[in-house]
Amino acid sequence: MSVPLKDLEKQQNCKSSKRKRHNSDSEDEDEDENSTWMNNIVDRYKGRPHIDIFIKLCLARFTSEYSVILESQLPQKINKDTTFKLDGSLGYIRKRTRTSPAVIKYPRFSPENSPEKYYQSILQLYLPYRYDEQLKPLLFQTYENFFTCGRVKFQGDNTLSSVKEIVIKNMSDFVKNGHDLEEAEKQFHEKDPKEDAWCELCPEAEVNRRECIDEGKVSSVIEEDLSIPDLNEKSSSSVGTNLLSVSLTKNEIIPRLRSLNVKQRRILYKVRDWCIQKANGKTPEPLHLFITGGAGTGKSHLIKCIQYEATRILAQTTNNPDDLTVLLTAPTGTAAFNIHGLTIHSALGIFKSLSPDHATLSEDKINSLRSKLEHLQILIIDEISMVNKKLLFFVHERLRQVKKRPDNCLFGGVSIIAVGDFYQLPPVRTKRVDKLYVDDPSNPSNQLWNGLFEIAELDEIMRQREDGMFAELLNRLRVKQKNESLSSSDKETLQHCFGDSPDEALHIYSTNAEVDTFNKEMIMKQCTESKLIEAQDFPKRQNFREIDSEKTL
Ligand SMILES: Nc1ncnc2c1ncn2[C@@H]1O[C@H](COP(=O)(O)OP(=O)(O)OP(=O)(O)O)[C@@H](O)[C@H]1O
């Protein structure tokens, strides 16, 4: 808005308008100078000229359409159509030259809580008057009463007009969406004001704001060398080493946060809200969230953002910002490597054999794990489709043990964000009934998954987002049953894709025979000169680890 806000508060005195403004607008400057001698805006309104255009002019319109000028600033030739002298020594007013009138600002009262103040205020603003008594003539007990039943006659007009109609008509020019705003304000006060509500309305602005705040601060995310314990020789001797998994740096994460699509963003903010509650000392129920979606819908992309954001916020809940609050894991080394996380087994000291006897850790090891996971609040498990009921049970038990929580405390009170797609890889060597999604109430581990997790589904394929048709085809293939045949157009699209792919590209075949053929072909292509080396096989003696060189097979 290019014109200044006006404060119509009745009691406002001239001093309050002496505030320095950095606006070079001449009308504004006039106003400041005038404020040093004027009484207040209401006095100036009452002292308006007794000519036709001012008779039915209400205070709101007077303030928004006229500005006060000093006598010394009067031009030599006064434009009598636009400049007017006020009564007494109140100065001059000039019609604003702007195309739009000024916005006016005034105290708002609730008609329910302060009816008298409310009706006094709207009468003062929208009913033309010259003396205060005209706002509540003696015959009327209250302002409300006058507003509802009063009638007035203006100078030079013999007809009686309803006060209510005049006020409502004038008010409609100034108060836009007033009822909605009042309702919104009421709801805002009734409900708990939402933390960070702005980031829901305008997440990009929130990212920018945060960027500004963070400028110069050290990132709370720990950056260190990549360490995947399962692939790291040294790690086998100790449990949960290097639990501080590598996260992205701020510069890497900001573009990711900005790029999130609507659904990804919604999920991020759900987790974020939970973290903010925690950071504010509240005790929300642990999250049990399952983020699913087809291949390439951005699940891994999202969990990196969640990990960054949750770590950043939850750092406020501990004395040491380096304490581990969010742990990013996956069931296999490769899956963990892809997300720069840890395997579930190494992070929680769970042995691959998965037998309860082997699951117990020595007191030393459990204490060491406890000290590392003391502040853990969120465990993210990627590729959940590869986790079976047994493994999830071990996760629950280990977290319970580490957090010293009773049997019935699911996952020791730690929030679990499971991410994956059950149409993708299943757990290895697992019977159908032990797969997570199979609802089997007779299995005590069933309660750790079925009916517990809230599902959030991503459905926009981001990997092939430039090729919408192909992305849709992938979605159809994802849910296709073996006995369902492909539509002819889908077949055509797939055949079209089946062109010459570069040799070095990863090739996927459905049978080992096809894999062997391709490998042989490639070897022949790359190694044109062949050498024959004859193999010799020797039997190994059972207990002596010696090779029986005499007995060649
Ligand atoms: N909002 C986004 N904006 C831009 N690129 C995105 C977005 N979300 C994901 N991507 C990109 O799309 C690709 C696929 O994303 P991602 O690997 O996270 O999907 P996924 O659901 O984990 O896939 P999969 O199930 O195959 O592991 C990646 O290259 C990722 O960087």
From TrEMBL:
InterPro entries: AAA+_ATPase (IPR003593), DNA_helicase_pif1-like_DEAD (IPR010285), P-loop_NTPase (IPR027417), PIF1_helicase (IPR051055). It is an enzyme of class 5 (isomerase). Residues 1-34 are annotated as: Disordered. Its cofactor is Mg(2+). One of its GO terms (biological process) is telomere maintenance. It comes from the Eukaryota. SMART domains: AAA. SUPFAM superfamilies: P-loop containing nucleoside triphosphate hydrolases (SSF52540). Residues 285-442 form the AAA+ ATPase domain. PANTHER family: ATP-DEPENDENT DNA HELICASE (PTHR47642). This is ATP-dependent DNA helicase.
